[in-house]
Structure prediction request, 209 residues.
Amino acid sequence: MTVSNIYLEPHRVRIQQDTVQYYASTGKPAALVDSKTHVLPDAPVAVACRGLVHFSDYIESALKPARSFDEAVALAETAYVVADFERADGKGFETTIAGVDANGTARAVVLWAPGDGSVTRTDLTPGSYLRPDLGDVAHLVKPDLDDERLFRVALVQQKVAHDNRLLMTVGGSCTVVEITRDGVKEKVLGDYPGRSGIEAQLARREVAA
Prediction:
C-alpha cells in the first residue's frame, strides 16, 4: 500500500503522500501521478486512499457531492457498505477523510475494510499517523513539524520500505495537502531519490508497448 501520513492538529490537518502507483502483485511501479490525495470540490476536505486504484476511484467519485466534512464521512461510510471490498485480493482497503468541520475544528476519520466483509471506523485524535509505520521512533514525529522535517520523515519511510523489501514502491514526488478553516493548500515538498529511474523505466515500457 502507498505512503499516507496524517498530521492532525486542533485547527489544521495535513496529508502527505508519494506519487507512484504500483502493481499490487509485484510492487513494481505502474505510473506516476500528480497527486494521490483527492481534494473535494465543494468542501474543505481531502481524501487519501490506500489499496486498489479502482476502489480509490469509486470512493472519490462517491464523495464528490459532499458539502461538509460530516457529509463526506457519511457518504464514505455508505460507499463502504455498497462496495464489495471482499474482492480486494485480501489486501484490504483504507480511506482517510480529513478536513475542517463546521466549528473550524480539524478532524480525520479512517475507514478500514480488511477484505473479510467487515468495516471499522477510527476517529483520529490530534497526533501523527504514519503509514508505513516507523516503529519505536514514530512517537518522535510531532504533528506540527515544518515542511523540511516532513520531507525528512518521508525519505526515512522510503528507506524503510526499501530495506525491509516491502511489496510497494515509494517514490515520485512528496506532496502535502493542508486543510484549515481558511481553505485547502497543496504543494510538493520535493522529489524522492530514484524518481528519474522510475520515469525511465515507465518510458521504456511505453516504447515497448
